[in-house]
Amino acid sequence: MHAHAAQRATQAAMSSASMLGLSTSDAAVLQNSNKLTLRLQPCDVLAQVAPAARQCAQLEVDIAQRLFEIGSPVAALQAPEVFVWDDYVVTLWTYYEPVTSPAIPSADYAEALERLHAGMRRVDLLTPHFTDRVSEAQTLVADHDRTPNLAEADRVFLAGTLNRLRRAVSDSGRPEQLLHGEPHPGNLLSTSIGPLFIDFETCCRGPIEFDLAHAPDEVAELYPGVDHDLLRDCRTLMLAMITTWRWDRDDQFPDGHRFGIEWLSELRKATAR
């Protein structure tokens, strides 16, 4: 978020926490991209703030709450409500002091993801399909106004890649279930009680390989029952999607334009194999 929006979003977080009787005299920014993540003090609560136009906050809260109740490895909510303040939605979560030891071992990562998937098979909520997310990327590629800096040759390449891989993954015949959507290392906390997943706004239905495409290679090698040909297609599809997001004129991913260029090059190499 830009400075003015971040300031208003911070006020939204502090006001929402105050509604619960929490003391909030300070807010430290932990992450700032398309949404703002804050550590509120002295109550020591984590707040996530997004533009109100993002309508997935309630689904994220509902899924996280149900997963926590059945013992899945997920971060706990501070409050099961979604707060609306001005043009923002706010969710409040438990803050976990990060463990400064080495990175989460691949075996622990794979076990946590397998446990998460097992819990998600017990959650019965209406969620998007992974193809809905692919459709969002396809719509963005086709919209010249929203992607004005995307060269025509790159636009054609991205459109063709998204279409081909969407069909390949959809037609794989693999079982589908509720997924995290983006269980990459940035969405897995290393805490004193073990690895915990966060950020469920991207939950969708699809084959587990779609989730594993976001995890390191070593994790996928340790996860049981993986279709590695499908995983390869999912990894390439995931790369095409995140590359597309970087060309959105409204994207606020740090240094996003540079990544957009680099990932286009990587995508061409991956599709040429």
TrEMBL record:
**InterPro entries registered for this protein in UniProt:** Aminoglycoside_PTrfase, Kinase-like_dom_sf
Q: What single Pfam family name could you report for this chain, choosing any that match?
A: APH
- Specify the superkingdom: Bacteria
Q: Which SUPFAM superfamilies match?
A: Protein kinase-like (PK-like)
Q: Which residues form the Aminoglycoside phosphotransferase domain?
A: 107-217
* Name this polypeptide is given: Aminoglycoside phosphotransferase family protein
Q: Which organism is it from?
A: Actinoplanes aureus
Source lineage: Bacteria, Bacillati, Actinomycetota, Actinomycetes, Micromonosporales
